Amino acid sequence: MSYTRAATATDDTPATATPAPSATTGADSAPSVTIADRLRDHPRVQETIMAAARAAARTRSRSGVDSGAVLADGAAAGASTQPQTQTQIETRAQAHAMSHAWLFTGPPGAGRSTTALNFAAALLCETSGAYGCGECQACRTAMTGKHTDVVHVVPQELSIGVDFVREKVVASAAKRPTVGAWRVVIFEDADRLTDGAANALLKTIEEPPAHTVIILCAPSTDPEDFPQTLRSRCRHLYVPALPVETIVQMLVDEGASENHARLAAHTSLRHVGRARKLVNTPAIQQRRAQAINLAEAIFHESGGFQAVGQLVKAVEKEAKESYAEADEAEKERLRNALGMGAKGKGTQKSVSGGAGDLRELEKQQKKRQTRRLRDVLDLALVDLAGIYRDALMVKLGAEVDLTHPDFQPLASELAEHLDEAGLVECQDAISHYRELLGFNVSPQIAFDGLVGRLRCAYRVH
Ligand SMILES: [Zn+2]
């Protein structure tokens, strides 16, 4: 799950409500944290979003909500043959600041979804001239994704098909807003779209309904990963990872010790959600240590294979168990909704019809489980890659922060026994097997293969 700070918005007000200079006027004196303030760690993101929100409000008030006044890129209302006044030029410039279709990219855990929800709040804010006061009902519900005009689509599958897109995104985007001025559709993990699904979305992105803003989010540092047809029709916004200090402060505010917070911020590679989990969940701390210690086990004849076997088993168990309760509860709800388990005449028919629905749900749950398993295995590989990176930094005498400061002795040991080429080989091997896992290779086979490659790089064959 990605980082959502919004839920604690009201609790952390005293700690973060610094009277920072802000692009907004009139809202700074408000006791709660404005949207502009929430985005202050990313100045460029802040500037883009506030300009878009102002432009959206302005076009709306000039032309009225019903005329579909906000323009898709370029098609400005003032494009007449008459000489233009200063106001018209300004209006056009402002119209350019807004777009119906956005693509938010950035490294995992940088806070794309939070940024998207903040954008929704800036658009839906009810305080005149504030563009996200952070206080009104619309702001508060939009930031937590609970606003009736904010649709937050979070796919659970590894790849997103046509039906999903039609049902969850295209249909949602077509509806008119109920209470707010906009309907905001936030679509997570849009990089998982199949080609067919991307095509199904194309028309909506190209000619979006006048009241709709669609924000596609993709955990990627390279927008090239994203289907070109969609990318070229969206305004692109890159959301960089938060600075270490910001993450540390955030975790300390939430009750973590400074030491733990700092370690988690580094180790998670500035992935906020992961850093938070690391601070709060002992099982995840253990698995992280298990993954990093693989680097030590590789030195020993069969140690690597054993350690890998244990790691894969632990991850599989976690993927299954951590959601077993939620999955069972979901099934129970469906059974009740279908009237299964009810006694009496006429229930038999609905039960046989419901069996298909239940099977469908089980299929979905299985897919989700597979995705979680891949995600956790991938994280383990990211942790392992971190220790080789640290070893290389130690070897080169580079003065940089280590990814795993608490495993510094291991990094030094690796730096001592492996040559530079070997350390680079280890990192390459890990990248290769991360990719393979994405292609549905069995985890055990992938990890065994990885151990073989690492042993070669260690020259211990
Ligand atoms: Zn507001």
TrEMBL record:
User: Which residue intervals are annotated with compositional bias (Low complexity) in the record?
Assistant: 1-32
> Could you tell me which residue ranges the AAA+ ATPase domain spans?
98-243
* Tagged with keyword Nucleotidyltransferase: yes
User: Which InterPro entries has this protein been placed in?
Assistant: AAA+_ATPase (IPR003593), DNA_pol_HolB (IPR004622), DNA_Rep/Repair_Clamp_Loader (IPR050238), P-loop_NTPase (IPR027417)
Q: Which GO terms describe its molecular function?
A: DNA-directed DNA polymerase activity
Q: Which UniProt keywords apply?
A: Nucleotidyltransferase, Transferase
At the top level, the lineage of the source is Bacteria
EC number(s) of the enzyme?
Answer: 2.7.7.7
Q: What class of enzyme is it?
A: transferase
- Residue ranges of the region described as Disordered: 1-33, 340-366
Q: Which NCBIfam families match?
A: holB, PRK07940.1
Q: Which PANTHER family match?
A: DNA POLYMERASE III SUBUNIT DELTA (PTHR11669:SF8), REPLICATION FACTOR C / DNA POLYMERASE III GAMMA-TAU SUBUNIT (PTHR11669)
Q: What is this protein called?
A: DNA polymerase III subunit delta
Q: Which organism is it from?
A: Corynebacterium pseudodiphtheriticum
